[in-house]
Amino acid sequence: MKRIITLFFIFIFAISCSTKTDTQNTGEADNSLQKVKEAGKLVLGLDDAFAPMSFIDENEEIVGFDIDLAKEVTKIMGVELETKPVDWASSILSLKKGDIDVIWSGFAVNESRKKQVNFSKPYLYNRLMVAIYAGRDDIKSKEDLKGKVVGVQTGSSNYEILLNDPISKELKEIRQYDTYVNAFLDLEAQRIDAVVAGETTIRYYIAKENANFELLEEEPLTSQYVSVGLRKGDMELLNAIDSALDTIRTNGKASEIATKWFGQDIIVRVD
Fold first, then answer.
1. What does the alpha-carbon distance between residue 226 and residue 121 come to, in Å, rounded to a whole number?
2. What is the pLDDT of residue 7?
3. b/e sequence 254-263, b meaning 16+ C-beta within 10 Å
4. Among candidates 24, 39, 233, 214, which has minimal Cα distance to 137?
5. What is the DSSP letter of 108?
6. Which residues on adjacent β-strands are paired with residue 144?
7. Rounded to whole angstroms, how far apart are CA atoms 131 and 195?
8. How many CB atoms neighbour CB 239 within 10 A?
9. Start-to-end CA span in the chain (Å)
10. Which pLDDT score is estimated for 12?
11. CA-CA distance, 66 to 51, in Å (whole number)?
12. 75 near 251, Cβ under 8 Å?
């Protein structure tokens, strides 16, 4: 009899766990948007040294293209925006732990990240390019990087893409940096030969920071969509962000912000 009772409770427990899992998978218990509304704020995880997407300005304030975009989105959602710098290499872990509500800092879409997070509709299409110190006669194409030292940010999708490119096997060294600021400082001091980064980032340093850099004007290593990253189960919050992004695309606010930071409207239009 004891054996039967024990088996019965094990059976009930198994059904309970299964039901709970199914509920999580179907999103029936999703209260992600409600939690944000109740808190009165959306906590945005970012890289605070990633100009022009999100960075600390001369007034010690966090600014950038993504910050301006997020402010418009949270305004529509009726909540405040709280910016929270995170270690970019462990940003997805911070998201999963609940330290932040979203990752929103030039967050590129790729297959490995899709397994861990959900993505909003993309709002940018960014080419991954190579920056060199201006006037390098020995580097005219990607093939000329053979035997050279190339910098890239640790934990970024750019690092993964560079590793998968055939040229990576020919490099002298792939030097990893915690931030692109440090990578570009080393490039400016000519301690490294090139930096692999998004085109928007490189062009910002050239145009706004007067950096003595050049882009290798050839086919990019790859092109990536840029989106907002959310936890897998947070579908209500995802839908609210997508809806707000659609609104600022339609009313022209997103284009206005893009022109402010990039000198042109590069916002992606999606259905």
1. 9
2. 41
3. bbebbeebbe
4. 214
5. B
6. none
7. 5
8. 14
9. 61
10. 41
11. 10
12. no
CB-count burial class (<10 Å; 0-12, 13-18, 19+) for 95 = buried
Q: Is the dihedral of CA 203, 48, 86, 191 positive or negative?
A: positive
pLDDT tens digits along 13-38: 443 443 333 334 444 589 999 999 99
Per DSSP, 64 falls in state S
Residue labelled with tokens 């305004």: 75
**Distance in angstroms (rounded) separating the CA atoms of residues 134 and 206:** 10
pTM score, two decimals? 0.77
* pLDDT, position 28: 58
Structure tokens at 219: 């086919």
What per-residue confidence (pLDDT) applies to 155? Answer: 80
CA distance 62 to 53: 10
Q: Helix 235-250 to helix 32-39 angle, to the nearest 10 degrees?
A: 70
pLDDT of residue 17: 44
Residue for token pair 């850099």: 213
The DSSP symbol for 267 reads P
User: CA nearest 109: which of 100, 99, 98, 119?
Assistant: 119
Residue 52 CB neighbour total at 10 angstroms: 22
Question: For 119-152, what is each residue's pLDDT tens digit?
Answer: 999 999 989 999 999 999 999 999 999 999 999 9
Beta strands 149-153 and 194-198, pairing class? parallel
Decide: 151 and 195 in contact? Cβ < 8 Å.
yes
How deeply is 97 buried, as exposed, middle or buried, from its count of CB atoms within 10 A (0-12, 13-18, 19+)? exposed
Q: Which residues of the chain are under the pLDDT cut of 50?
A: 1-27
53 touches 45 (CB < 8 A): no
